[in-house]
Amino acid sequence: MERLADRLQAGEVLVADGAMGTLLIERGLPPGEAPESLNLRRPDLLEEIARLYAEAGAQIVGANTFGGSPARLAMHGLAGEVEAINRTGVEAARRGAGEGIYVAGSCGPSGRLLKPYGDADPDEIYAGFLRQTGALVAAGVDAIYVETMTDLAEARLAVRAAKAASGAIPVAATMTFDRTRRGFYTVMGVDIPAAAAGLAEVGADLVGANCGNGIEDMVLIARAFAACAERPLLIQSNAGLPETVGGRLLYKETPEFMAARVPELIAAGAAVIGGCCGTTPAHIRALRQAVDRTMSGRRPRAKETREGTQA
Ligand SMILES: [Zn+2]
Protein backbone atom coordinates (compact mmCIF):
# COMPACT_ATOMS: atom_id res chain seq x y z
CA MET A 1 0.00 0.00 0.00
CA GLU A 2 1.28 3.46 -0.90
CA ARG A 3 2.50 5.36 2.14
CA LEU A 4 0.03 7.85 3.56
CA ALA A 5 2.73 10.51 3.75
CA ASP A 6 3.44 10.14 0.02
CA ARG A 7 -0.21 10.57 -0.90
CA LEU A 8 -0.49 13.69 1.23
CA GLN A 9 2.74 15.00 -0.26
CA ALA A 10 1.31 14.47 -3.73
CA GLY A 11 -1.58 16.74 -2.86
CA GLU A 12 -4.35 14.19 -2.53
CA VAL A 13 -7.29 15.00 -0.28
CA LEU A 14 -8.26 12.01 1.83
CA VAL A 15 -11.39 11.25 3.79
CA ALA A 16 -11.21 10.02 7.36
CA ASP A 17 -13.91 8.36 9.43
CA GLY A 18 -16.53 9.89 11.69
CA ALA A 19 -17.55 9.66 15.31
CA MET A 20 -16.65 6.71 17.47
CA GLY A 21 -18.00 7.69 20.89
CA THR A 22 -21.54 8.45 19.77
CA LEU A 23 -21.76 5.12 17.90
CA LEU A 24 -20.47 3.22 20.93
CA ILE A 25 -23.09 4.88 23.15
CA GLU A 26 -25.76 3.81 20.64
CA ARG A 27 -24.39 0.27 20.92
CA GLY A 28 -24.80 0.27 24.67
CA LEU A 29 -21.52 1.59 26.13
CA PRO A 30 -22.48 2.00 29.81
CA PRO A 31 -22.26 5.59 31.12
CA GLY A 32 -19.02 6.17 33.00
CA GLU A 33 -17.20 3.23 31.43
CA ALA A 34 -13.99 3.99 29.55
CA PRO A 35 -14.77 3.50 25.83
CA GLU A 36 -11.30 1.95 25.47
CA SER A 37 -12.22 -0.92 27.79
CA LEU A 38 -14.26 -2.23 24.84
CA ASN A 39 -10.98 -2.91 23.03
CA LEU A 40 -10.47 -5.77 25.46
CA ARG A 41 -14.10 -6.68 26.09
CA ARG A 42 -15.95 -6.12 22.79
CA PRO A 43 -13.48 -5.73 19.92
CA ASP A 44 -16.24 -6.98 17.60
CA LEU A 45 -18.06 -3.63 18.07
CA LEU A 46 -14.96 -1.67 17.07
CA GLU A 47 -14.39 -3.93 14.11
CA GLU A 48 -17.97 -3.33 12.99
CA ILE A 49 -17.63 0.47 13.26
CA ALA A 50 -14.35 0.46 11.28
CA ARG A 51 -15.99 -1.71 8.63
CA LEU A 52 -19.00 0.62 8.35
CA TYR A 53 -16.73 3.64 7.89
CA ALA A 54 -14.50 1.89 5.35
CA GLU A 55 -17.57 0.79 3.39
CA ALA A 56 -18.79 4.40 3.48
CA GLY A 57 -15.59 5.54 1.77
CA ALA A 58 -13.26 6.50 4.61
CA GLN A 59 -9.65 6.07 3.53
CA ILE A 60 -8.32 6.47 7.09
CA VAL A 61 -10.04 4.99 10.14
CA GLY A 62 -9.18 5.84 13.71
CA ALA A 63 -8.47 3.24 16.37
CA ASN A 64 -10.48 3.44 19.60
CA THR A 65 -7.51 4.67 21.62
CA PHE A 66 -8.45 8.30 22.32
CA GLY A 67 -8.25 7.82 26.11
CA GLY A 68 -5.42 5.29 25.93
CA SER A 69 -2.78 7.29 27.79
CA PRO A 70 -1.75 5.93 31.21
CA ALA A 71 -3.04 9.01 33.06
CA ARG A 72 -6.44 8.77 31.44
CA LEU A 73 -6.74 4.99 31.83
CA ALA A 74 -5.70 5.29 35.49
CA MET A 75 -8.94 7.21 36.08
CA HIS A 76 -10.74 3.96 35.21
CA GLY A 77 -8.35 1.61 37.00
CA LEU A 78 -6.86 0.50 33.68
CA ALA A 79 -3.33 1.92 33.90
CA GLY A 80 -1.87 -1.56 33.70
CA GLU A 81 -3.56 -2.17 30.35
CA VAL A 82 -1.98 0.63 28.29
CA GLU A 83 -0.17 -1.67 25.87
CA ALA A 84 -3.02 -4.18 25.54
CA ILE A 85 -5.70 -1.51 25.05
CA ASN A 86 -3.76 0.38 22.40
CA ARG A 87 -2.73 -2.79 20.58
CA THR A 88 -6.19 -4.37 20.53
CA GLY A 89 -7.73 -1.05 19.43
CA VAL A 90 -5.44 -0.92 16.39
CA GLU A 91 -5.99 -4.60 15.61
CA ALA A 92 -9.78 -4.25 15.70
CA ALA A 93 -9.68 -1.20 13.40
CA ARG A 94 -7.35 -3.01 11.01
CA ARG A 95 -9.56 -6.12 10.87
CA GLY A 96 -12.71 -4.07 10.34
CA ALA A 97 -11.29 -1.66 7.76
CA GLY A 98 -9.65 -4.37 5.66
CA GLU A 99 -7.10 -4.00 2.89
CA GLY A 100 -6.02 -0.64 1.53
CA ILE A 101 -7.34 1.50 4.39
CA TYR A 102 -5.01 3.39 6.71
CA VAL A 103 -5.39 3.05 10.48
CA ALA A 104 -4.63 6.05 12.66
CA GLY A 105 -3.97 5.76 16.37
CA SER A 106 -5.89 8.36 18.35
CA CYS A 107 -4.17 10.12 21.24
CA GLY A 108 -6.42 12.45 23.22
CA PRO A 109 -5.76 14.61 26.28
CA SER A 110 -4.38 13.00 29.41
CA GLY A 111 -7.27 14.36 31.45
CA ARG A 112 -4.78 16.04 33.79
CA LEU A 113 -4.01 19.76 34.02
CA LEU A 114 -0.37 20.61 33.57
CA LYS A 115 1.49 22.83 36.00
CA PRO A 116 1.02 25.71 36.74
CA TYR A 117 -2.76 25.30 36.17
CA GLY A 118 -2.85 21.87 37.77
CA ASP A 119 -0.51 19.41 39.43
CA ALA A 120 0.57 17.29 36.46
CA ASP A 121 4.29 17.16 35.83
CA PRO A 122 5.09 17.67 32.10
CA ASP A 123 7.80 14.98 32.16
CA GLU A 124 5.34 12.44 33.52
CA ILE A 125 2.69 13.38 30.93
CA TYR A 126 5.29 13.17 28.15
CA ALA A 127 6.40 9.74 29.36
CA GLY A 128 2.76 8.62 29.34
CA PHE A 129 2.20 9.81 25.77
CA LEU A 130 5.44 8.11 24.74
CA ARG A 131 4.23 4.85 26.26
CA GLN A 132 0.88 5.12 24.47
CA THR A 133 2.21 6.20 21.07
CA GLY A 134 4.97 3.58 21.35
CA ALA A 135 2.25 0.93 21.77
CA LEU A 136 0.35 2.34 18.78
CA VAL A 137 3.47 2.28 16.60
CA ALA A 138 4.31 -1.26 17.75
CA ALA A 139 0.79 -2.28 16.68
CA GLY A 140 1.49 -0.91 13.20
CA VAL A 141 -0.51 2.31 12.87
CA ASP A 142 -0.12 4.31 9.65
CA ALA A 143 -0.54 7.68 11.40
CA ILE A 144 -1.15 9.18 14.81
CA TYR A 145 -3.81 11.77 15.57
CA VAL A 146 -3.14 13.94 18.58
CA GLU A 147 -6.64 15.33 18.95
CA THR A 148 -9.25 17.31 20.89
CA MET A 149 -6.43 19.17 22.61
CA THR A 150 -7.13 22.49 24.35
CA ASP A 151 -3.78 23.10 26.12
CA LEU A 152 -1.03 23.84 23.60
CA ALA A 153 1.69 22.69 26.03
CA GLU A 154 0.02 19.30 26.40
CA ALA A 155 -0.58 18.98 22.65
CA ARG A 156 3.11 19.69 22.05
CA LEU A 157 4.13 17.01 24.55
CA ALA A 158 1.95 14.49 22.71
CA VAL A 159 3.31 15.46 19.29
CA ARG A 160 6.89 15.24 20.55
CA ALA A 161 6.16 11.81 22.01
CA ALA A 162 4.52 10.59 18.80
CA LYS A 163 7.47 11.81 16.72
CA ALA A 164 9.86 10.11 19.13
CA ALA A 165 7.84 6.88 18.87
CA SER A 166 8.13 6.93 15.08
CA GLY A 167 9.84 9.32 12.71
CA ALA A 168 8.33 7.44 9.77
CA ILE A 169 4.57 8.00 10.00
CA PRO A 170 2.59 11.26 9.80
CA VAL A 171 1.56 12.84 13.07
CA ALA A 172 -1.51 15.07 12.91
CA ALA A 173 -2.38 17.44 15.73
CA THR A 174 -5.78 19.04 16.10
CA MET A 175 -7.18 21.27 18.79
CA THR A 176 -10.77 22.08 19.72
CA PHE A 177 -11.79 25.71 19.36
CA ASP A 178 -14.84 27.59 20.59
CA ARG A 179 -16.33 30.62 18.91
CA THR A 180 -15.93 33.72 21.10
CA ARG A 181 -16.61 37.39 20.43
CA ARG A 182 -12.88 37.84 19.80
CA GLY A 183 -12.53 34.88 17.45
CA PHE A 184 -11.83 31.19 17.91
CA TYR A 185 -10.01 30.07 21.07
CA THR A 186 -9.62 26.78 22.88
CA VAL A 187 -11.06 26.66 26.37
CA MET A 188 -7.45 27.11 27.58
CA GLY A 189 -7.10 30.34 25.60
CA VAL A 190 -5.09 29.14 22.57
CA ASP A 191 -5.84 30.91 19.29
CA ILE A 192 -5.35 29.53 15.80
CA PRO A 193 -2.04 31.25 14.92
CA ALA A 194 -0.52 30.03 18.20
CA ALA A 195 -1.76 26.48 17.57
CA ALA A 196 -0.52 26.43 13.96
CA ALA A 197 2.96 27.66 14.89
CA GLY A 198 3.31 25.76 18.15
CA LEU A 199 2.27 22.40 16.70
CA ALA A 200 4.39 22.74 13.56
CA GLU A 201 7.41 23.69 15.64
CA VAL A 202 7.43 20.32 17.42
CA GLY A 203 7.00 18.43 14.16
CA ALA A 204 3.28 17.95 13.51
CA ASP A 205 2.88 16.93 9.85
CA LEU A 206 -0.73 18.07 9.72
CA VAL A 207 -2.43 20.63 11.95
CA GLY A 208 -6.03 21.65 12.34
CA ALA A 209 -9.19 21.28 14.36
CA ASN A 210 -11.60 18.60 15.49
CA CYS A 211 -14.79 18.61 17.53
CA GLY A 212 -16.52 21.57 19.16
CA ASN A 213 -18.02 23.06 16.00
CA GLY A 214 -20.35 22.35 13.13
CA ILE A 215 -19.20 22.53 9.55
CA GLU A 216 -19.82 26.26 8.98
CA ASP A 217 -17.54 27.36 11.79
CA MET A 218 -15.03 24.68 10.75
CA VAL A 219 -14.76 26.37 7.35
CA LEU A 220 -13.89 29.65 9.13
CA ILE A 221 -11.37 27.80 11.32
CA ALA A 222 -9.79 26.16 8.27
CA ARG A 223 -9.43 29.56 6.57
CA ALA A 224 -7.84 30.99 9.69
CA PHE A 225 -5.35 28.10 9.74
CA ALA A 226 -4.74 28.56 6.01
CA ALA A 227 -3.72 32.16 6.63
CA CYS A 228 -0.89 31.14 8.97
CA ALA A 229 -0.19 27.38 8.78
CA GLU A 230 2.61 25.97 6.67
CA ARG A 231 1.27 22.44 7.10
CA PRO A 232 -1.63 20.67 5.41
CA LEU A 233 -4.83 20.68 7.43
CA LEU A 234 -6.84 17.95 9.12
CA ILE A 235 -10.43 19.05 9.75
CA GLN A 236 -12.89 16.84 11.64
CA SER A 237 -16.17 18.66 12.20
CA ASN A 238 -19.02 17.73 14.49
CA ALA A 239 -22.46 17.33 12.94
CA GLY A 240 -23.33 20.67 14.53
CA LEU A 241 -23.45 21.54 18.19
CA PRO A 242 -25.39 19.07 20.31
CA GLU A 243 -28.91 19.85 21.44
CA THR A 244 -30.48 18.01 24.33
CA VAL A 245 -33.78 16.46 23.29
CA GLY A 246 -35.55 14.16 25.74
CA GLY A 247 -32.34 13.64 27.74
CA ARG A 248 -30.33 12.63 24.65
CA LEU A 249 -27.75 14.66 22.80
CA LEU A 250 -28.75 15.21 19.19
CA TYR A 251 -26.47 16.46 16.43
CA LYS A 252 -28.57 17.92 13.65
CA GLU A 253 -26.34 18.61 10.65
CA THR A 254 -27.27 16.27 7.82
CA PRO A 255 -24.76 14.54 5.55
CA GLU A 256 -25.83 16.80 2.65
CA PHE A 257 -25.46 19.96 4.72
CA MET A 258 -21.92 19.05 5.76
CA ALA A 259 -20.90 17.82 2.31
CA ALA A 260 -21.94 21.10 0.70
CA ARG A 261 -19.07 22.86 2.50
CA VAL A 262 -16.36 20.46 1.32
CA PRO A 263 -15.20 22.63 -1.63
CA GLU A 264 -14.54 25.50 0.80
CA LEU A 265 -12.60 23.22 3.15
CA ILE A 266 -10.45 22.01 0.26
CA ALA A 267 -9.91 25.56 -0.98
CA ALA A 268 -8.64 26.43 2.49
CA GLY A 269 -6.06 23.65 2.37
CA ALA A 270 -7.76 20.69 4.03
CA ALA A 271 -5.76 17.57 3.20
CA VAL A 272 -7.77 15.18 5.36
CA ILE A 273 -11.48 15.69 6.01
CA GLY A 274 -13.41 13.57 8.48
CA GLY A 275 -16.10 13.86 11.10
CA CYS A 276 -16.27 14.14 14.86
CA CYS A 277 -19.16 13.90 17.33
CA GLY A 278 -22.53 13.13 15.80
CA THR A 279 -21.22 12.13 12.39
CA THR A 280 -22.13 8.70 11.06
CA PRO A 281 -21.17 6.50 8.12
CA ALA A 282 -23.85 8.36 6.10
CA HIS A 283 -22.01 11.65 6.74
CA ILE A 284 -18.69 10.10 5.70
CA ARG A 285 -20.23 8.70 2.51
CA ALA A 286 -21.48 12.20 1.60
CA LEU A 287 -18.13 13.80 2.46
CA ARG A 288 -16.27 11.27 0.30
CA GLN A 289 -18.57 11.90 -2.66
CA ALA A 290 -18.08 15.65 -2.25
CA VAL A 291 -14.29 15.29 -2.06
CA ASP A 292 -14.26 13.10 -5.18
CA ARG A 293 -16.45 15.59 -7.06
CA THR A 294 -14.34 18.55 -5.99
CA MET A 295 -11.03 16.90 -6.81
CA SER A 296 -11.96 15.35 -10.17
CA GLY A 297 -9.96 17.17 -12.79
CA ARG A 298 -8.41 19.39 -10.17
CA ARG A 299 -5.28 18.21 -8.53
CA PRO A 300 -3.01 18.57 -6.77
CA ARG A 301 -4.59 20.27 -3.79
CA ALA A 302 -4.02 24.00 -4.00
CA LYS A 303 -3.82 26.17 -0.97
CA GLU A 304 -5.62 29.45 -1.42
CA THR A 305 -5.17 32.19 1.04
CA ARG A 306 -8.08 34.52 1.03
CA GLU A 307 -8.75 38.05 1.87
CA GLY A 308 -11.10 38.58 4.72
CA THR A 309 -10.03 35.45 6.53
CA GLN A 310 -11.55 35.63 9.96
CA ALA A 311 -10.62 33.90 13.11
ZN1 LIG B 1 -16.08 15.36 18.85
Automatic annotation (TrEMBL):
<dbReference type="GO" id="GO:0008270">
    <property type="term" value="F:zinc ion binding"/>
</dbReference>
<dbReference type="InterPro" id="IPR003726">
    <property type="entry name" value="HCY_dom"/>
</dbReference>
<dbReference type="InterPro" id="IPR017226">
    <property type="entry name" value="BHMT-like"/>
</dbReference>
<keyword id="KW-0489">Methyltransferase</keyword>
<dbReference type="GO" id="GO:0032259">
    <property type="term" value="P:methylation"/>
</dbReference>
<protein>
    <submittedName>
        <fullName>Homocysteine S-methyltransferase family protein</fullName>
    </submittedName>
</protein>
<dbReference type="Pfam" id="PF02574">
    <property type="entry name" value="S-methyl_trans"/>
</dbReference>
<feature type="binding site">
    <location>
        <position position="277"/>
    </location>
    <ligand>
        <name>Zn(2+)</name>
    </ligand>
</feature>
<dbReference type="GO" id="GO:0008705">
    <property type="term" value="F:methionine synthase activity"/>
</dbReference>
<keyword id="KW-0808">Transferase</keyword>
<keyword id="KW-0862">Zinc</keyword>
<feature type="binding site">
    <location>
        <position position="211"/>
    </location>
    <ligand>
        <name>Zn(2+)</name>
    </ligand>
</feature>
<dbReference type="InterPro" id="IPR036589">
    <property type="entry name" value="HCY_dom_sf"/>
</dbReference>
<feature type="binding site">
    <location>
        <position position="276"/>
    </location>
    <ligand>
        <name>Zn(2+)</name>
    </ligand>
</feature>
<dbReference type="InterPro" id="IPR050554">
    <property type="entry name" value="Met_Synthase/Corrinoid"/>
</dbReference>
<keyword id="KW-0479">Metal-binding</keyword>
<feature type="domain" description="Hcy-binding">
    <location>
        <begin position="2"/>
        <end position="291"/>
    </location>
</feature>
<dbReference type="GO" id="GO:0005829">
    <property type="term" value="C:cytosol"/>
</dbReference>
